[in-house]
Specification:
It contains six helices and five strands, in the order αααβββαββαα. It is of the alpha+beta class. The model has no long low-confidence stretch (mean pLDDT about 75).
Length: about 180
Amino acid sequence: MKNNRYTEEFYAWLANNYKGSRAKMIEKIQQQFGYNMNFKKLQNQIWIARKKYNIPELNSEGRPKSKDGAIHKRINGDCIRENGKLKLYYRYVWEQANGKIPKNCCIIHIDGNRANNDISNLYMITKIQNAYINSNHLAYNNLEELKICLLMSDISIIKPHYVRPSRRKKQSVGDDKKW
């Protein structure tokens, strides 16, 4: 059996410092431990440290990968593979914190920044409220403004709209006969 020349201290350090630039990590490892490493060796040792200390694998942005696979970059936002299906990352974050999203609801970003998927920036509203906000071009930048927009949409949905009476004459029951 081959002797492992790397120490437990090295793996513990690697488990705590595996994020960041690989070039800087190679320099720090050489200074602190005296190991000569290239990029490929470092990747292998990070993989061993992750397995040893049960650290989740991260994507390029530092977010943990899902058990099924990686977080995918898309034009309209990040996606995560869950149970073999792609799901928008902000919906995944919401469901992890608050449970399943009802069919008549959607999740919006309070500050309007779709890259900010922090749970404090996500808010669930109904699809009808979302349609009202978007069709009337209502803008909001914080939670208070969003709640005002939601109140306006609720009032508009409840209030009956004026319908112009028809100009056509109503036919009575016997008017369909020709004389």
